[in-house]
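Hey L., structure's done. Input below.
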Amino acid sequence: MDTKEMLKAILRSIDEGIHVIDHKGRTIYYNQIAADHDGLTSEEVIGKPLLDVFPSLSPQTSTMLKVIESGKPIYNQQQTYRNLRGKMIDTVNTTIPIIVKGNIVGAVEIAKDYSRIKDLSNKLLDLQTRIDRRKNKALTVEDNQAIYQFNDIYTKDSKMLKLMEKAKKIAQTSSPVFVYGETGTGKELLVQSIHHASPRSHGPFISQNCAAIPPSLLESMIFGTKKGTFTGSDNREGLFELAHGGTLFLDEIHTLPYDLQAKLLRVLEDGVVRRVGATTSFKTNVRVIVATNETPEVLLQKETLRKDLYYRLNVVSIHLPPLRERDGDIEDLVHLFIRNYNHQFHKSIKGVAHKAMAAIKNYEWPGNIRELEHCIESAMNFLDGEYITLEDLPEEVCKRKASPTENKIPGLNSNMEQCGLKETLSHIEKQLILKELDHSKGNIKQAAKRLQIPRQTLQYKIGKYKIKH
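Output:
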């Protein structure tokens, strides 16, 4: 098999539509997947001018002809159409110019079929809409599983108690809220509590994880669609309409494409929503709460979050601390989870053995409260005795402690060498912060840069260690 035939065989095996034209607009390659999308055969397309085969296109609407004209690629553009067999097709296309020795000799378009995913998301929205209309009232908190209240947040930590007082005050207003914290810290629990304690508690609570839906489908899901915008489109309510009079919670907001972030900003600015393809707009009364699992500084630095959107959302911000920084909460949470799973599993576990509890407290819990709960649930699935022991815990929680010689760290005094890992690390961290603050003459921005951490993180740690500068 020669190189040309081998290349054709490779292209035929790719499970995406591939359409290639030359610089004159004639098709030179058209694989079977692309043919299935369009309801055509390769023979009907190859060798013919693009606009002859697809008369609904024009030089202004054809992405391939645009790319040949401009020489610039077009990435992830959504396209919806009905093929010649009457089937609705939703694709996301990437179109790239073919350049040889500095000259544009053609264009290639790669089409990914999202028809099934979009159909499923539309069915979900239809179901929500039917429930709403059948009950002839706004979706209630219970309908949307906004079941948590501030009483469900268990804590003795002073930082968390202050945070909850702040959140209770926030609940009485309608300003946007920006919540951030590591995965598993309980962001949605806090957001639901804010909704429950607000004057909107009898209105709908709509929650959507932006990372769970393909970017090409998010716009129609959030803002809705107008019938007749494209072939097969229907009048469909978006999340803003479903949340009217209540709260819309958008988790992992930084995964929204930049253009959708701009559209969301416009809605936040004037409260006006326009469905995809519509020419008229309507006012909404929705409180928007968003969440991320990274600090805003990191997201802005990585340019996954628009600055203008962040400044609008950051009217009120809440940082949920990781479990490892919540002094005294781990043991209480362990006993809470034991009580819950005793009831659920019909068991009567009394508690945790001393060594097992020491290991639990000494672990860093990168997955935070969610990981701790799953750890206890796992242990209770197999436990036959009355107490959870070291043998019942995951291996990573029970890693051995270093020997005395391994604990020798230069620069630590003898008293610090007798402390546990958490206290020792805190001591080292505090000394490093003091050193850099002294070096920068109290300039937090410079110190944070030298420590390679966000400025807000350094400010938090300065408060944590009660450092005066």
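The chain has a mean pLDDT of 82. The first helix runs from residue 3 to 13.

-- N.
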